[in-house]
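Margin note: ligand = NDP.
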Amino acid sequence: MTAELIDGKAFAASLRDKVAILAATFESKAMRKAGLAVVLVGDDPASHVYVRSKGQQTVAAGMASFEHRLSHTASEDELLALIDKLNQDRFVDGILVQLPLPDHMDEQKVIAAINPDKDVDGFHVINAGRLAVGLPGFVPCTPLGCVMLLKDRLGSLAGLDAVVIGRSNIVGKPMAQLLIAESCTVTVAHSRTKNLPDVVRRADIVVAAVGRAEMVKGDWIKPGATVIDVGINRLPPEPGADKGRLVGDVDFTGASAVAGAITPVPGGVGPMTIAVLLRNALVAAYRNEGLKLPADAI
Ligand code: NDP
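Resulting structure:
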């Protein structure tokens, strides 16, 4: 292996520490804790794990965590009424509705009901628009975490060729917007892209957000490139094991023999997502109280 490992776990821990310091300052100025509300509908086991982890990390950062659980039989109107209540609640700075929602609910309608200034996931169309035109708003946590890791490793990204594989609203598209804002030359690839290996070979920065285990091979990577692997895929279990290994969208062994730096899975992008969520919630709290955050503090 020649590539340097990008340690997302360590970076996320240091970001959480910074958030905790600023959360204490916020509390002393606002005379209340910054608050993050998480809404979970239904009994998806993976969502329960995420929500518990978000709650624990919110409290550990010195913020208030409000958890709301609705049954999978709850109506869309009940969920919208809860969101309305949270929008009005001055102790709630950020609102996150855990996705996916049950099939009988319209995700876009639910996201649209969140006050954009409390939309710490950055999924509201107002925040997508703000990102597109360069106004301050909330940016989805996973791509923002990827840019933080890239800037930490590379400094300025200006002029670099970046290829983002994936065009989802929560990862690929905001990732591309953020890289454009950093003055990269950005190519967005997807399932209809022709000659994907050749497209990826041009890239100084590769961001893989596809959801296909180990799809990006080592010989697709330009020597010295920086590889950010967003994918989280579970392989089928080995004989005798009850769970398969977690892997990314990049063939880690092949790519790390060529790349300059690479994020591992697990321990790369994954830990950044919740750390950035806490960061966004804290930024929301400062804005909601009209307090100024020190420039580039987090
Ligand atoms: P989506 O399924 O919404 O999007 C996948 C994208 O990959 C689509 O744009 C699709 O193209 C593209 N794609 C699919 N197959 C190919 C292919 N063969 N070649 C090129 N492109 C292809 O996924 P998400 O963006 O939500 O997530 C992507 C991955 O990131 C998943 O593994 C997910 O688990 C992980 N993830 C990790 C997070 C973290 O915290 N680390 C957070 C969020 C996601 P098209 O649009 O043409 O269909």
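The domain at 29-116 is CATH 3.40.50.10860 (Rossmann fold).
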